[in-house]
Amino acid sequence: MPGGVRGGGREAPLYSIGQLPLGAKIQGNGSVEETMDIQLNGRRTSVATGTTIGDLIRAKDLDPTTVVVERNLAIVASADWDRITLQGNDTLEILRFVGGG
After folding, report:
1. How, if at all, do strands 24-26 and 74-76 pair?
2. Chain-centre distance of CA 13, in angstroms?
3. For residue 29, what pLDDT is reported?
4. Which of 73, 41, 44, 67 shows the shortest CA–CA distance to 54?
5. What is the CATH topology of the domain spanning 4-96?
6. Which pLDDT value is given to residue 80?
7. Which of 2, 22, 29, 28 has its CA nearest to residue 13?
8. Is 51 helix (H, G, I), strand (E, B) or coil?
9. Alpha-carbon dihedral of residues 50, 91, 59, 22, nearest 10 degrees?
């Protein structure tokens, strides 16, 4: 199949190293995933393009009932997490509430 490889039921383009899109990384199955950098709790972190705040919370295995998310200095309501797609250079702070006495 010219121009692509089959993986996961869909055709993915073939790239030589010099042609990889900026911010792309090659997966173990040979597919290419485009990524972008964000700041997460003060550290540069790469996430897949198209990642939502909800995706990130689930990927970090956080309990959504115990965290608050700030994106670019604004608190984001948990009801909006799956609707907000992260953008390159977003700054996120995820604060976890811990009970105690």
Report:
1. unpaired
2. 21
3. 61
4. 67
5. Ubiquitin-like (UB roll) (3.10.20)
6. 98
7. 2
8. coil
9. 50
**74, β-bridge pairs:** 71
- In tens digits, the chain (101 residues) has pLDDT values of 344 444 444 455 555 555 545 555 555 565 556 899 999 999 999 999 999 999 999 999 999 999 999 999 999 999 999 999 999 999 999 999 887 76
The residues that bridge with 32 in the sheet, in sequence order, are 26
Residue 35 CA to residue 49 CA, distance in Å, equals 5
Taking the CA atoms of 34, 95, 77 and 73 in sequence, report the sign of the dihedral they define.
negative
What is the longest distance spanned by two Cα atoms in the chain? 64
H helix intervals, 1-101: 53-59
| pLDDT value at residue 86 | 97
List the chain domain ranges. Answer: 4-96
